[in-house]
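input
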Amino acid sequence: MALRSAPVWLLVLEVVALQHACLGSSSHSLKVLFFAISEPNQRLSYSIVLGYVDSQIFARYDSNSREIQPQVSWMEKLRKDIPQYWQALTNLVHAENDMFRNDLEDWRSDYNKDKGLHMLQGILSCDLQGDGSKRQFVQGAYNGVTINKSNMDACNMEYCICIELLEKFLSYGNETLLRTETPTVTVSSRTEVEDGMEMHVCRVHGFYPREIDASWTRDGEVWLQDTLHGSIAPNTDGTYHYWLSIQIDPKERGRYRCHVEHDGLQEPLDLALKVPGSNLGLIIGCFAISLVMVCGIVGTLIFLRNHRQGRGEPQRATSF
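output
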């Protein structure tokens, strides 16, 4: 039963990884997520490692198979073309796995907790940022409590291997990891019945890479008041979508713009707000369709009655 909780904790790790994935324009990161679970009374022990480049999972490892399983086609190609990099990744994962499992035993012993379920989580990442700088981030947690967190610039063995692997992965996965997809930006509007205020929603769809700067501006300045926004979320084709809304006084509509900056745009995009459409046309249209349908039904009944009269058939009582 204890091991069945693992996917929930893995989801938490993945969310944390995606939150740290966005570091600025044209930045890239390699992240290794580790999760270990142990229940001494039942002699259960299990660990899993997930590898991400940016927000794309490229490999999976678990303690049962002790083998890295590629999750993308370019990873399979790298495995065949340059086996030494695959071995370096394997060594890195084995080292992290053994280290975290040993840490799990140490922490369990230090707290004299031989009963119950014990969990250890960890994230190791290295980043190539848009300005050319590099950094490493390490964080661990025991039973949900942070035990270490650090940012390192020194080139230790694991860090250097991580950066080298990231650069190689970017070269092999360039068709997907280094591509640029231009965002499609639309603005929709409606008038709130209660107070007459206007709600405007700016939707940004189909962009890649994930980094994007989208905001509402008033008179050219970023405006945060009365605004809401969603999370940057993936589409099924690997691109992303995002939305942000604002509530304003209709008299000030001309002061606001939806401002979007992205690598796929040659220059920043500023969309003016639209006048909310009226529902009057829809109401008139529905009424007209209903009227035509009623007229059609009445006309059909009249035709059938006249047709029976012409054939000398006895008339049936009608309601009109």
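quick obs: The radius of gyration is 30 Å.
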